[in-house]
Amino acid sequence: MSYVIGAPCIDELDRACVEVCPVDCIYVGDRKSYINSNECIDCGACEVECPVDAIFVDRKARKDPELKAFLEDSRAFFDEPLPGRDAPLGDPGGAQKIGEIGVDTEFVTNFSA
Amino acid sequence: MARTPSPMQTDVLIVGAGPTGLYGAYYAGFRGLSTIVVDVLPQAGGQVMALYPEKEIRDVAALPSIRGRDFVANLVEQAAAYEPSYLLGRQAVALVHEDGKPVVTLDDGTVINAEAVVLTAGIGTPTPRPLECGEEWLGSGLSYFVVDPSVHAGKDVVVVGGGDSALDWADALSRIARSVTLVHRRAAFRGHAATLTRVRDSACVIHTDTQVTGLHGDLAAGRLEKVTLRSKAGEESLVAADHVIAALGFISDLGPLREWGLELAGRSVAVDRAGRTNLPRVYAAGDLTDYDGKVKLMSVGFGEVAIAMNHVAVDLDPDLTLFPGHSTEGA
User: Fold this and answer.
1) For the residues B214-231, what does the mean pLDDT come to?
2) Burial of B251 (0-12, 13-18, 19+ CB in 10 A)
């Protein structure tokens, strides 16, 4: 189980969630941020902080195609090489250590509401 | 002259005073074992107290709904029947074995000789999130905690952050400091509304949508004089500051126990079904541990630490039985 960041984050990128994550598992792309589901401890601290209510718990995605798309996209952000990179990010073990990623998945780059 | 206090002795040393560790303290007592509980945080309760003390917990058996803070108080009360010793605000930094038994050293130099160690450290050690600038001032003009508010009496203090710690310290210091400036990167504060109201009503100057971008003064002498603030709109200003307190929250990781020779599984410690780690007389339970099929829940941690503590009892005294008997038979 994990929390997931959805569409409202795109171009908002407030980073309030990043500040409260106790395990530093929220990685900042270009247009939005992404939660690493392997590193997330399900504490829910980020969900209440998000000023645009972009964060949802993954089980909510089961019956909602848009949430599901963002759940799958979140996994892809870490599991598949991002544009311009050879290797996937994987589980870096802390966002602060590696800095902002500065690039999104193709899905998010091309996303328009 | 260096003080070398004599080592403390205990049957069981529990590392981590979250729900699993606290229930472990009860269980160790129930099995007749003396217990010391260590935690790096200044209070018992682990994540529950650090992250959601006011929220209702609804997934623990026989407790339909209970506030986090009350839940922790109950665990402490349950363990108190066996009088465990708490060493809070201290971090276990080293674990070695002497004559096959664990010896744990704390960050204040305390040495504990234990017959067994049970690790219930959850997500590990919280370390403060650093301020984005001015790290060279750490220890003089910059700190992450207020240990003794009175050192700020009559001084110019800048508090950075938007959570409860930042608000609490701004509130407390505004009564004794010459000036308090509260700086928060975002527009909205996260902390308690009542504290925020007190801070707004005090002489404290609040800058929202603003970051600290520079610390200035005589670094060699450790004398901070002012800080640069930069607003989201790009406006810069200078504020008098003898001290900056950065309360930007915490990031947790396994910390020192990563170096103890434990078999790790990612961010977790690998254990067998009895809660044994790969090290002799070192057990682990709760969110810290991993094995095939693991689910990280308090309910699971309670079961795991009960299993581990029963095995500790028998491993230390093979004449005992693994089954503890019924607690209803006790006083």
Assistant:
1) 96
2) buried
Task: Give the CATH number for residue B74.
Answer: 3.50.50.60
Which residues have a Cβ under 8 Å from the Cβ of B296 and sit 6 or more positions away?
A41, A42, B286, B287
CA distance between the termini of chain A: 26
All residues at 6 or more sequence positions from A112 whose CB lies less than 8 Å from its CB, including other chains: none
Extract the tokens encoding B151: 């050192």
Return the minimum-mean-pLDDT range out of A13-17, B200-204, B210-214, B290-294.
A13-17
Alpha carbons A6 and A53: distance in angstroms, whole number: 9
pLDDT, residue A79, reads 97
CA distance B31 to B82: 10
In a domain, B271, yes or no: yes
DSSP letter assigned to residue B60? B
ipTM: 0.74
> Do B119 and B161 belong together in one domain?
no
- Structure tokens that stand for B52 in this block: 């959601």
Least CB–CB distance from B123: residue in A23, A44, A96:
A23
Measure B293 CA to nearest chain A CA, in Å: 13
Pairing type for strands A55-57 and B101-106 reads: unpaired
The structure tokens listed for B165 are 């710690």
- Cα nearest neighbour of B296 on chain A: A41
**Rounded to a whole number, what is the largest CA-CA distance in chain A?**
35
How far apart (Å, rounded) are the C-alpha atoms in residues A34 and A92?
13
Is B40 at the interface with chain A, CB within 8 A?
no
Same domain, B57 and B205: no
Cβ–Cβ pairs < 8 A, chains A and B:
47
